[in-house]
Design brief:
Helix 2 packs across helix 3. By secondary structure, the protein is an alpha/beta fold.
């Protein structure tokens, strides 16, 4: 399949996979075509979009080596990197294989992330429903009535309740300083 786009979603026929979560995961597999003129930063940005089962198509040996090295460094399993030659023939391929323990840990970590995101979304939805706003203030979070959220003075008033983030919240500025 020839394309000039950097990302292509390939729908699979319904008869080739079973329905349910497995179908959705398989049907939305993506392949990324890395152009020979992509910088290493652009290659990294493209690779960060990948999920298990996706493919990377490289037309240039250097891009293939960069993609292979990054996936090995990141230990991302079940992503196929293909070096394509004339007529889109596969010249070389690479797929990182994580051991079962690493894969199980990564899967559990992903499930934990998804649960945390769902819990936060429920909390934010409840805040919206009851007219509260969560605001990043100084190096933490405060909860204030919605009508006071844009008033900097209100953020340090008794109307603002600080959130005990258990050191799980940080700002990007704090991350860059360390």
């Amino acid at each position: 399949m020839k394309t000039r786009q950097s990302c292509v979603y390939e729908p699979l026929p319904l008869s080739s996979v079973k329905l349910g979560t497995d179908f959705i995961n398989t049907a939305l597999n993506m392949h990324i075509l890395l152009a020979a003129d992509f910088s290493q930063a652009k290659v990294m940005d493209q690779l960060r979009q990948l999920r298990s089962g996706d493919r990377v198509h490289c037309l240039d040996v250097r891009q293939f080596q960069v993609a292979k090295a990054l996936l090995k460094e990141w230990r991302w399993a079940n992503i196929l990197v293909l070096l394509l030659g004339p007529g889109n023939q596969v010249i070389e391929q690479y797929k990182y294989q994580a051991n079962e323990q690493q894969q199980a840990h990564r899967t559990q970590h992903r499930q934990d992330q998804e649960q945390v995101v769902q819990a936060l979304e429920k909390v934010f939805a409840h805040c919206k429903q009851v007219g509260l706003q969560v605001v990043s203030f100084s190096d933490g979070l405060v909860v204030v009535p919605e009508h006071l959220a844009s008033d900097p003075m209100a953020l340090s008033s008794p109307d603002a309740l600080g959130v005990n983030d258990c050191e799980a919240y940080t700002t990007i500025t704090e991350q860059l300083e360390t």
